[in-house]
Design goal:
This protein is of the alpha+beta class and about 260 residues long. It is built from seven helices and eight strands, in the order H-E-H-E-E-H-H-E-E-H-E-E-H-H-E.
Length: about 260
Amino acid sequence: MIIRTFLTLAALAISATFFTSRAVAADATPAYELRIYTTNEGKLPDLLKRFREHTCKLFEKHGMTNIGYWVPMEKADGAENTLIYIISHKSRVAAGESWKAFGSDPEWQAVAKASEANGKILAKAPESIFMTVTPYSPEIKIVPAINDREPASGVFEMRTYTTPEGRLEMLHARFANHTMKLFEKHGMTNVAYFTPSDSEKGAGSKLIYFLRHPSKEAGLKAFTDFRADPDWIKAKTESEKDGPLTVQDGVKSVYMKAVDFSPIK
């Protein structure tokens, strides 16, 4: 009962923080953008080359900040044709201005044309999800490579949770007060936690977060140990007295490797 009451109060406190943050003018709130690119068969190397040699620099030129770039590890998740990345903008308004300037930049237009001389790279339009960092998210830290030939080791996991209506704040409270500490206890590193900004992308019902593991095998074992932890079982049971905090099949996981030009490794 004590844990349940604490979670409820924490959820209300976090909810108040969210409503306060939404009241801040759109042109003054940092905006994060998750983008997912799907290439035509055999074109992922061309896309990575374009980002490595041109796109990332042009993003910075137009006011965008490169944060992390990853390729899924498993074929079923897009290992052969998918690039997942996060950039940040000074604000949502600034994002629109930056993308407009980037798209009309003659240098970008020349690069795009040259890179597709042997065929179109993307199979479909990129997916874009604007996000807000949660109040309890760790500060996003750039871990540099050991040297140019030996990047930092480890893998990343992107996890997306979808909640029933009205249950997202309770999920936030559980992460803030229990889950994140237990992740660290079991050897997982909390990287960043976000919520989508737009209703059509899951605002009010989705949590998107990133973990770092020494390896995929280590990550899978860590979750097995985490789920068996009595502290987690107790927190989960108490937080779900009124029903589960995720919908059926509402937890998605993608293991990823950082590419060589990713700021976060």
